[in-house]
Amino acid sequence: MKGAFEYMTENSSESRKYWPHTPLHHLTSGSVYIITAATIYKQHFFRSPEKLTILEQKLLSMASHSKWDLEAWAIFSNHYHFIARGYEDSMPLDRMINQLHSTTAREINEMEGLSGRRVWYNFWDTRLTYQKSYLARLNYVHQNAVKHGLVDVARNYKWCSAAWFEKNATRSQVSTIYGFKIDEVNVYDDF
Q1: Which residues pair with 37 in a beta bridge?
Q2: Using one digit for the tens of pLDDT, what is the confidence trace for 78-126?
Q3: What strands lie across the sheet with 32-39, from one edge to the other?
Q4: Which of 20, 25, 128, 163 is an S-S bond match for 155, by CB 3.0 to 4.6 Å?
Q5: For residues 190 and 130, what is the distance between their CA atoms, to the nearest angstrom?
Q6: CA–CA distance, 52 with 61 (Å, rounded to integer)
Q7: In a domain, 54, yes or no
Q8: Does residue 43 lie in a domain region?
Q9: Radius of gyration in angstroms for the set of CA atoms belonging to the chain, rounded to a whole number
């Protein structure tokens, strides 16, 4: 494991310094990740249904274009979560996220007649390598709108994958995923 102030790049043996107050992004293709991203100062830039829809649609289309399979997502006014599975030919995940952030920031700034306003703060990633951890996090993302008190039943929140999941998965898959406890899942979600 690398020290807290340096890491090795995937395609190089050289180490690089990074700012110690930002999360490291050890992103590799052919893996599954849970991603959390937040707006700057936790501001509610995506408060309206129209803006939530823009962010969700951009995430879904960019993930598809970048060859990342989204397995769960939850979009909110000041943050989002998603779980994505990448492949050897997937676009680097950090590049996809940076494109998502620039595109959505420009779009909502344009809607509000602003230019150059910073919208996004950063994103946090965790590579999911253990099945139980992966399944618990799938449930966590599906249930996140309930956790935040926005709905009583996850499938009723329009900007998350719960309704899609319940419609497309088998009854036993839904039962298995929803059976995983999420109260001790460690995901940055202080919003």
Answers
A1: 80, 123
A2: 999 999 999 999 999 999 999 999 999 999 999 999 999 999 999 999 9
A3: 69-75, 79-85, 32-39, 120-127
A4: 163
A5: 24
A6: 14
A7: yes
A8: yes
A9: 17
pTM: 0.84
Phi/psi of residue 98, each to 5°?
-60, -40
What gap in Å lies between CA 105 and CA 153, rounded to an integer? 30
CA–CA gap between residue 150 and residue 76 (Å, rounded): 10
The model's pLDDT over 154-179, given as tens digits with 9 standing for 90+, comes to: 999 999 999 999 999 999 999 999 99
CATH of the domain at 105: 3.30.70.1290
Query: How many structural domains does the chain have?
Result: 1
Pick from 81, 83, 86, 94: nearest CA to 68 = 86
The β-bridge relationship of strands 69-75 and 15-17 is unpaired
- Residue-number span of the structural domain to which 33 is assigned: 25-178
